[in-house]
Amino acid sequence: GPEETPYFGGVFHCKLVLGADYPTQPPKGISISANSCLLQNSFSAVFATKIFHPNVNSDGMICVSALKKDWQPTQGLRHTLAVIRCLLIQPNPESALNEEAGRMLLEDYDEYASRARLFTKIYAAPKPANDGSKVATAVILEPGLQKKQKRSIKRL
């Protein structure tokens, strides 16, 4: 997470689906639960890491206008990730998906920050470097995406 936020030091994983209509249309979120894997057309990204944030619901769904109604085909994955990072720096409690977090942010920032830090510590703590774990990034491509597009995405 970004410095000077309650998310600092946390490692947050997001899931994005790049459809055949990408980049004309923004990435879609994918929600993975114990029982199902569901493509979410109404959400542009999903936190796979549990997070306490006004603009992220309990399933990890993120809804940000820059990744939905304000999407431009010239924007790429770097822009998408930058928007998500900015959301960690400056949450928008007026359009909260998590009403409790939005209310706390507006009424009692210290309580909000404390809860967000606790979630970060519990769910987003980085793994020790010597445990053999590797950080992996996956981009899910829907059928029909052209091979040329696949190659350019892998180079990011």
Automatic annotation (TrEMBL):
UniProt-recorded name of the protein: UBC core domain-containing protein
Segments passing through the bilayer: none
MF terms in GO: ATP binding; transferase activity
Active site: 63 (glycyl thioester intermediate)
Keywords linked to the UniProt accession: ATP-binding, Nucleotide-binding, Transferase, Ubl conjugation pathway
Tree of life domain: Eukaryota
Database matches in InterPro entries: UBC, UBQ-conjugating_AS, UBQ-conjugating_enzyme/RWD
Nucleotide-binding in keyword set: yes
Family: Belongs to the ubiquitin-conjugating enzyme family.
Pfam families from the UniProt entry: UQ_con (PF00179)
PANTHER family associated with the record: UBIQUITIN-CONJUGATING ENZYME E2 (PTHR24068)
